[in-house]
Amino acid sequence: MTLPLTAPPKHICLLRLSALGDVSNVVPVVLAIQKAWPETRITWITGKAEHSLLKGLSGVEFVVYDKKTGLKGMRELWQSLKDTEFDLLLHMQAALRASLLSIGIKAKIKLGFDRDRAKDWQWLFTSHKITARKNSHVVEGFYDFLHALGIAPESPQQLQWLLPVSEQARQEATEKCDFERYVLISPCSSQRARNFRNWTVEGYVAVVRHLYQHYGIKAVITGGNRDIEHQYARDIAEQAGTPVLNLVANTSLQGLIVLIERAQLVIAPDSGPVHFANAVNTPVIGLFATSNVHRTGPYLWQDWVVNKYPQATAQFMNKTVAELSWGQRVRHPHAMDVIKTEEVLAQIDRLLQHSAFTDTGRKVTVS
User: Are the CB atoms for 14 and 101 separated by under 8 Å?
Assistant: First the structure.
């Protein structure tokens, strides 16, 4: 078989294990494949937490790999697929764990990233590569898989997002949050080594007060079950002096999607919730200083990010963005302090008074 295909494949395997924001950005690829090739069977190999977000996605069979199971789990997955040969493997994760997992997956074609984007030697594990693209957003990397298959829409902006949400998740969101108008704040990013993406408690307190005092918008705080996330939520609620609902570690992932869908606005650092908001078209202000918004920002809302990455690279790395490798992180514990409270408040006011906000139907009375 060669690319682009002359006929729809019978069975595709998509390999993307993590992370939550990234897998939400892969969903448009699945929807585009289903639209172009409605008879094609799709199997998606993904992570345990990611499956809890994706389960219910129409027309997709899931195979779950728990990274905690290591090589033993890989062998079990290979055994479960030993009698299956896919026409096509879309290897959409440039990470060594995913590449090792791909070894035991039989496919006539294994399509991966181009050499520049094939981190962790992914190019060694694939037979075909997508076309190179310089300085691209993560979403554009996923779009380029569709381009290689000959079924891409005219531009990545035309991709369609549709995250699965169960009725149980909708009921959960209704029961846990009775606020009519609220901002959803997810203050902490995931825990990774030297991953400094969290803004200050004082900044979030000022944001919560501003939104309530000027727009009557209450605050819902969400996050995972880590001590730092619980502490952030408690501190924000205690110091704000305004209505704050603390739902940290108290929602399912699909319940979180519903809460984001119903929110007037989402505010978060470079983390899953900014991409979830992008997917359900909820206005989102991302807080970026340690990562490049043009690579990992909320794709359709990049213009609304508070982007202090250039200032952080200058202050903590003594380099311009152009002098860094594409997407290089700023690994300094004080990098997010470059984001000033008044800049975030100004961006909030700009968004709430802009057609990009009112066009969503989330109309507010501006004082």
Answer: no
For residue 76, the 8-state DSSP code is H
Residue (of 240, 234, 230, 239) closest to 182 by Cα position: 240
Instruction: With CA atoms as reference, report the closest residue to 164 among 259, 261, 53.
Output: 53
Under 8 Å between Cβ of 280 and 257 = yes
Pairing between β-strand 106-112 and β-strand 85-91 as defined by DSSP bridges: parallel
Segment holding 300, helix H or strand E: none
Residue range 68-74: average pLDDT?
A: 97
pTM of the model: 0.95
What lies within 8 Å, CB to CB, of 79 at 6+ separation is: none
Alpha helices (H) in 150-302, listed in sequence order: 167-176, 201-215, 227-240, 253-262, 272-279, 293-296
Q: Per-residue pLDDT averaged across 293-320, rounded?
A: 97
**Residue 37: both structure tokens together:** 């090739």
Vertex 128 angle, CA 98 and 36, to 5°: 90
Contacts of 256 (CB under 8 A, 6+ apart): 222, 273, 276
Helix (H, G, I), strand (E, B) or coil at 166: coil
User: Rounded distance, CA 88 to CA 152, Å?
Assistant: 16
293 contact partners, CB below 8 Å, separation of at least 6: 286, 302, 305, 307, 309
